[in-house]
UniProtKB/TrEMBL annotation:
The keyword Membrane applies. Pfam families: VanZ (PF04892). It comes from Brochothrix thermosphacta (Microbacterium thermosphactum). The chain crosses the membrane at residues 43-61, 68-90, 114-131, 138-155, 167-184. Keywords: Membrane, Transmembrane, Transmembrane helix. It comes from the Bacteria. InterPro entries: VanZ-like (IPR006976). Residues 77-182 form the VanZ-like domain. This is VanZ-like domain-containing protein.
Length: 192
């Protein structure tokens, strides 16, 4: 089992490293700014890739066993919320505006910017998993109201754009997370 876990980790590390260099780091620098040259340092890149690889490896092992450690879940969600706050409120400080309508999303998908759309969906899946105890109607109301408030906050505090496409894509992510957890809930055991 240890050899399999090591092989899984090495394969995950390799894939995450490729994704990091190809996709994530260039976009992260856009959010932070080019003046922060420390982002190009090899140690920061290595640490980020290592943390993501360990997280993915542990998640896959626990999924295969159908048992999740509660401490792992607490740590994972803590890191998730810290990064979510960063991406929601600190990635575009000083730039603001609004995009209303779905035509911008369609244009972006035609231009090949599907990765950003997928990120907007996938990043809200874990939050959707947390909201499964809500009744369906309450889930819809809380989700849409929360997403609307996030977008209004970004615009009014000059921390980003009010974008109806973000509301749509983030809601799809929330609903997908809720759906996945409701499907997996009976098959996964939580333990300390």
């Amino acid at each position: 089992m240890k050899v399999r876990a090591l092989v899984l980790f090495l394969a995950t590390f390799f894939c995450v490293h490729l994704m990091y260099d190809w996709w994530w780091r260039p976009r992260f620098q856009v959010y932070i700014g080019e003046e922060n040259g420390w982002l190009d340092g090899p140690w920061l890149s290595f640490i980020i890739v290592l943390i993501i690889s360990v997280f993915i490896t542990l998640t896959l092992i626990q999924l295969k066993r159908r048992r999740f450690n509660l401490y792992f879940i607490y740590v994972s969600y803590s890191l998730y919320f810290v990064t979510m706050i960063f991406f929601l409120f600190f990635k575009s400080v000083g730039s603001y505006g609004y995009y209303i309508g779905i035509t911008i999303l369609i244009d972006e998908l035609k231009e090949g910017k599907i990765v950003e759309a997928l990120f907007n969906i996938l990043y809200f899946v874990p939050l959707g998993m947390l909201l499964t105890r809500l009744k369906r109607s309450v889930f819809f109301l809380v989700s849409l109201l929360g997403l609307f408030l996030i977008e209004i906050s970004q615009y009014s505090l000059e921390l980003g754009y009010f974008d109806t496409n973000d509301i749509l894509l983030n809601f799809i992510g929330l609903y997908l997370g809720r759906f996945l957890w409701l499907q997996l809930n009976n098959e996964i055991e939580l333990y300390r």
